Amino acid sequence: xxxxxxxxxxxxxxxxxxxxxxxxxxxxxxxxxxxxxxxxxxxxxxxxxxxxxxxxxxxxxxxxxxxxxxxxxxxxxxxxxxxxxxxxxxxxxxxxxxxxxxxxxxxxxxxxxxxxxxxxxxxxxxxxxxxxxxxxxxxxxxxxx
Length: 145
Ligand SMILES: Nc1ncnc2c1ncn2[C@@H]1O[C@H](COP(=O)(O)OP(=O)(O)O)[C@@H](O)[C@H]1O
Ligand SMILES: [Mg+2]
What we know:
The protein is an alpha/beta fold. It has one domain (2-141): P-loop containing nucleotide triphosphate hydrolases (Rossmann fold). It has helices spanning 10-22, 42-53, 88-93, 96-102, and strands at 2-7, 30-35, 67-70, 77-81, 104-108, 122-128, 136-141. Strands 1-7-6-2-5-4-3 form a 7-stranded mixed β-sheet, with helices on both faces.
């Protein structure tokens, strides 16, 4: 099932993300693959997810650290930014595959690791709209068994 939204502010993007997170099963490890260019709002979307699943988290892009871990109300929330990841070896060295079993994983720059994205991932794509300053088109493809 594909849902498409248009937002005109980061707050609105966060709200869409919060609503999406609200529909997730909070007790089951799962994967959210995010796609979209630099500055499009991926981290803003993660902030919205975290506001639901890990309300104490201070979300910022883990570009240099690759993964941030936030304490969740149920499972931990793992926030990846794989912009600098170049292949399987890099993923193994950060322990990527172990995180998949342990919590809710959300990944910025999923384009870079397409082969490693689980088949049952939810997919979120953000693009700039007609007004690239503040318009965003958010496409959410939720995986349903
Ligand atoms: N509708 C919108 N949704 C999300 N971010 C927006 C929107 N309009 C403008 N912005 C701006 O775009 C930038 C998004 O930054 P960020 O979430 O860090 O992007 P990314 O993680 O994709 O690089 C922020 O500066 C934010 O203020
Ligand atoms: Mg980011």
